[in-house]
Amino acid sequence: MRELYPSIQPYATHKIEVESPHVVYVEECGNPEGIPVLFIHGGPGAGCSEAHRRFFNPEKYRIVLFDQRGCGRSTPHAELELNHTQALMADMEQIREQLKIKQWVVFGGSWGSTLGLAYAQCFTQRVLGLILRGIFLCRPSEIQWFYQEGASHLFPDYWEEYLQPIPERQHDNLLKAYYKRLTGNDEVARMAAAKAWSSWEASCSTLEPAPAVKAHFADPFTALSLARIECHYFINDSFLEENQLLRDAYRLEDVPGVIVQGRYDAVCPMESAWALHKAWPQADFQVIADAGHSAFEPGILNALIEATDAMAERLV
After folding, report:
1. Which one, of 316, 307, 283, lies nearest residue 55 by Cα?
2. What is the pLDDT of residues 15-36, one digit of tens each?
């Protein structure tokens, strides 16, 4: 079973002024002359971590990570203004151009798979390959499943905690109720909603309980950006057209790809990965039998490391 590559530090960091008021944090790790790869984090609103650098062989890859608008080390924190999918794709292109990268591998999980797909379908000529995990197509049925009814039947105890900030009379539209609190002026209510929202997601992300994951997601700094930005995107259909990512999957026909999906992923159920597999059969489709949603579960981690190694061998 493969493990993460050893811990590394960036050899360069950048603060890139994109669209005011946003300034995006970017870092480069590994081999400056290696195969460029862009890591796209989840959420939206989660930000990158040190561990995300370690999915790639640092001798073979020029590893580029960035915190998307409003999260991580990007500023202003938890900002919703001019924060939408098309803006994030424009930021990716600005990063690529500023770093003088012609083409790169795109790697993303969960929301990172959403943004990775949208980017690759729009800028196909810029993509050397796609490695995607925990497929999230941002369709209304997927949002309904996780934030209104569906996953609630698998985790009724965690669901009760998710419901706590919302009065029972507003339970018929939890997304709307959360959005009102997360964008309201009551700071106490805003933070209570942010922690409940983020803790719900963390609690459901692994096949076995992972207290460290829940603690990270519940941290006020992470919880606020994750909850506010996710809710903002989801209440706006993630700024995507209906069924856009499946509709445009034909554009990926010549792009080398790997899809890694946990069989028991309750956050992004396997139906979405299966639908993408049917629409993009050229990609290598891997179902991990003993895993949920998290990239750090052993089976998923093993598959992702093998995928980045194989992609490097293919592109040398």
Report:
1. 307
2. 999 999 999 999 999 999 999 9
Per-residue pLDDT tens digits for 239-264? 999 999 999 999 999 999 999 999 99
pLDDT digits (tens, 9 = 90+) for 104-134: 999 999 999 999 999 999 999 999 999 999 9
pLDDT category at 212 given cuts 50, 70, 90 is confident
40, 107 in Cβ contact below 8 A? Answer: yes
Catalytically active residues, by annotation: 110, 265, 293
Q: Where in the chain is the domain with CATH 3.40.50.1820?
A: 12-139+239-315
Query: For every residue of 65-114, which 3-state class applies, written as one string?
Result: EECCCCCCCCECCCCCCCCCHHHHHHHHHHHHHHCCCCCEEEEEECHHHH
Distance CA 279, CA 222 (A): 34
Task: Give the type of residue at 112.
Answer: G
User: What single DSSP character describes residue 63?
Assistant: E
- Of 234, 267, 35, residue with least CA distance to 140: 234
CATH topology classification for 12-139+239-315: Rossmann fold (3.40.50)
